[in-house]
Specification:
Layout lengths: L2 H6 L9 E4 L6 E4 L12 E2 L5 E9 L2 E9 H13 L6 E4 L12 E4 L1 H4 L2
Antiparallel strand pairs: 1-2, 3-4, 4-5, 6-7
Length: 116
């Protein structure tokens, strides 16, 4: 691949946003600057369109998967911690794009109020 072709393939940079690359799929997730440290972890695309990562721990002396962390819920948890609120029951996307995990795009609500 020539240098000129490589330069054309560089992602477009938007000021104040980070694009997080997802594993082998090459898709990009939008994040706010406050959440840049999340980019140091490996994230993957779920079959339903959500971004996730697996957590690992020891069980009976073996390393096993212990849980799933959803990116939009991780960002929502950070928002709630900063405001001194309890963890939300439901997190939805304002524009419906599950790859857009910017803080302004997340709607945080309790389960009882979401359907109203």
């Amino acid at each position: 691949m020539t240098r000129q072709v490589r330069e054309q393939r560089k992602p477009i940079r938007y000021p104040g946003r980070q694009k997080l690359r997802l594993g082998p799929s090459g898709l990009r997730v939008e994040l706010d600057p406050e959440d840049r440290d999340l980019g140091s972890q490996s994230w993957y695309l779920h079959s339903k369109g959500y971004v996730f990562r697996r957590t690992r721990g020891m069980k009976n002396g073996r390393l096993v998967y212990t849980g799933t962390v959803w990116l939009h819920r991780e960002v929502a948890r950070r928002i709630c911690e900063a405001r001194g609120l309890a963890m939300p029951g439901r997190v939805t996307f304002l524009n419906g794009a599950r790859l857009d995990c910017r803080r302004e795009n997340l709607v945080i609500s309790r389960k009882a109020h979401n359907g109203r």
